[in-house]
Amino acid sequence: MSVSAIEIIKTKVAVYNCSHWGRIKVSDNDRLRFLHNQSTNDFESLKPGQGCDTVFVTSTARTIDLASAYVTQDAVLLLVSPNRREYLMQWLDKYIFFADKVQLTDLTDETAAFSIIGSQSDAIVEKLGASEIIGKPYGTHIPIPNLNGDTQNIIAVGSGLASPGYRLILNANQKEIIWQKIIEAGAVEIGDRDWEILRILQGRPQPESELTDDYNPLEVGLWQTVSFNKGCYIGQETIARLNTYKGVKQNLWGINLNAVAEPGTVITAENEKVGKLTSCTQNGDRYFGLGYIRSKAGGVGLKVKVGETEGEVVSIPFVSHEYPKAES
After folding, report:
1. pTM here?
2. Backbone torsions φ then ψ of 42, nearest 5 degrees
């Protein structure tokens, strides 16, 4: 199954039911300002129909979750990791003060979510009648055609991985109808195990593996989720300092391995500890891991040992380790 999932996204299109991920609706007049102040990206510049990825971080800029946000006419829909939904609801609620006009609603049980992934994704979107978003910027979204105009029914650019694709969020009572349309249009269903293989191969970080109290968004390589021009937000001072002084001391990389290794295993180079493995998967007869490695130890091409397993560091498409050019 694992090999086929990789082949499917290269040559066809896969559909993944991610309805167990969390969906949080942030509404009322201060919603954009609130999210602007609570996460790393610039929400105050977003208009309805636009979206972005953002990271929720602690006051010391340690990662809590990577979320996708979609701005509608009257709310922001957040798609969050399945094991972070309740935590984020409580965490965000803690920062709503008496005068703030912000409402949080957990929509997970009353909605569904799908990811369409692969080189032929546009053909599926055309058959759903949503061809107007093909070629639009990441996060762009429109109401799913032929459903009611409810702002909880959207189709958005971006698969959730580095591969091209789209995401759908829809009312739960429409789930079977839309799923059937996607399958009839030629998509192949993939399951949780396939998603896990794809996310590790592409380097999408997840909570309790790559996103923990030990790491900040710049170490992860989530530069695209961080605005350096906006004002103050939780964790902003630490992130700004790391960027200004090029202070990122470790980076998340992919590692080609010659055998399986347990997450948490120490990574060494020339008998010196340089990092830690965070995820590992098997891809056919190959093994592949994600791990943090000290910047001074090197990057792509570095030969390492993960425990007793030999490996070589490679780049992963979901993240970047280039400091962005200064914006004028």
Report:
1. 0.95
2. -95, 100
